[in-house]
Amino acid sequence: MPLYGALGMTFMQFPLLQNLQSSTAEVVVSGVPYDMSTSGRSGARFGPEGVRAASANLVWEGARWPWNFALDDHLKVEDAGNVLFKHGEPQTLVDNLEAHISNIMEADKTALTFGGDHFITLPVLRAYAKKHGPLAIIHFDAHTDTYSGGTKYDHGTLFHHAVEEGLVDTEHSLQIGIRTAYETDGHPFEVLDAAWVNGNGPEATLERIKQRVGDKKVYVSFDIDGLDPSVAPGTGTPVSAGLSIDTALKVIRGLRGLNLIGMDVVEVAPAYDHADITSLAGATLALEYLYVLAANKGAGGDYLSR
Q: By the 8 A CB rule, do 245 and 231 touch?
């Protein structure tokens, strides 16, 4: 087992998953310490470790502001540790990760997955699609990751392959925060680029998201470089003029009511971070998503404390 595969602590100090079949958890957290598909700076293999460590700053709150309930009272979450694979053999990562997420699906649980580079989303979507069929995707990123010219294992081609394989319902999917070049003619996703989101704000963004997604089953993929490098420098391919963490949290928070069935947070690379702010952003976004799941179950009364 590679050293970076060891588990130092669990996310939010949630219990360590001991047996998937007997577990009463509704959400299973997994780490994927893999970054062999990066085209920029490597280091996202340490993302799961960084996000879990940063989550210690969030545990003390009890009920996270501005929610009016404590998550533990309404949602059962356990941490399964890291998905292991043979270093230097990326196909073992593909096989092991897809099998791991498939096992979570078969146990009637949902997954919250920490990368690793963005390639890890492709095996996850394969597992999800086997159970749920093509998914609506809400994808936060500076890049569309729909490029067709990359290699078999490439964090810039995963959504090209996902569309080609029929894993994604593109008519009900969006990409948010994009601010790099892509082929607009025939692009399969609706794009709300970073300039549009920053200019129109979270409420307009949520209106577009809900119109597009409707009642479809939704998977959220959050590449941390969707955030501006001023708040998320710890990533492999940073791009200026991204989303603020406030905007991103408001959008995630506003997904309440959608049929959310899974999320990943990827591309956190702690080696390029300052004061762990990128890891903290990733942990906070993931925690906000869990609160939305709890709210969808009826927790929290009328929504948020004011």
A: yes
